[in-house]
Amino acid sequence: MLDENLIHKALANPFRREVLTWLKTPKQSFVQEYGDLGCGVPLNAIHARSGLSQSTVSAHIALLVKARLLVSNRVGQWMFLARNEEVIRAFATQITLDL
Fold it and tell me: Distance between CA atoms of 33 and 70, rounded to whole angstroms?
């Protein structure tokens, strides 16, 4: 079940949309920091690219995860993030039907 209002809230912020764009093409967006381990992009790479404080980035990421637009995977002490393509497609389909 999609929480459309939460997704709209998440997409209302330009930085959160930018993160989703970066994660759409992680090999191009994170050339030096990205080693494809099959579990996404490390959170610290997103933080480094953003130029924002760690707490600010974490708050933005938390909302994207809560809206289910991102999937987080913890491997040891590292957190990796990837787009949730299934939810993004379902949301896009729902928008097309509703509007």
Answer: 19
* Full-model pTM: 0.90
Tokens of 12: 């209302």
Right CATH for 4-98 from 1.10.10.10, 1.20.1730.10, 1.10.8.420, 1.20.1510.10? 1.10.10.10
Number of Cβ within 10 Å of residue 86's Cβ equals: 10
Rounded Cα gap, residues 10 and 68, in angstroms = 10
| Count of C-beta atoms within a 10 Å radius of residue 32 | 8
Residue 36 has pLDDT above 70, yes or no: no
